[in-house]
Every structure is written in structure tokens, then in C-alpha cells.
Amino acid sequence: MTPFPWKEAMRFGLGVLKLPPDAFWKMSPRELAAAWSAVVGERTGPLDRAGLDAMMERFPDGR
Questions:
Q1: Helix (H, G, I), strand (E, B) or coil at 62
Q2: Is the pTM of this model over 0.70?
Q3: Where are the domains of the chain?
Q4: CA–CA distance from 30 to each of 9, 27, 59 (Å)?
Q5: Is 80 exceeded by the pLDDT of residue 28?
């Protein structure tokens, strides 16, 4: 089992969301995960070729 990523969780909650410590520590891991996905997006794994092609089409470098 992988340990909970407390360092990243605190960095996100306190640094990115700028929550006061008492609000951060009152959050459940599920609430923190929901905030994370709202800001960062769902984490689905590494980008595959189809995903890269779709992203390149959506955000072209300029032509």
C-alpha cells in the first residue's frame, strides 16, 4: 500500500488553495481530492499518442 502523500496534499491545500491550516485539517481526503480534480483535473495516467494528437490539434503551435 502506498502511503498518503501528505507533503503534496499540504502543498496543494495550504499553498495552491491558500486554505488556513484549520480549514485544511478539517477536510476529508475525499474533499481534498475533489478540490484537486477541480483545479488540476482528473489524473488518468501518462499521456498516450491519441491524447497527444488530440491536444496538438486542439492547441496548435501556430501555422
A1: coil
A2: no
A3: 6-58
A4: 12, 8, 32
A5: yes
Work out the mean pLDDT of the chain and round it to a whole number.
84
Q: Which three cell numbers stand for residue 40?
A: 488540476
What are the φ/ψ torsions at residue 23 (nearest 5 degrees)? -70, -40
Burial 6-44 (b: 16+ CB within 10 A, else e): eeebeebbeeeeebeeeebeebeeeebeebbeeeeeeee
Comparing C-alpha atoms, which of 12, 5, 3, 54 is closest to residue 34? 12
Mean pLDDT of 26-44: 82
Measured CA distances, 59 to 50, 52, 56, 63 (Å): 14, 10, 5, 11
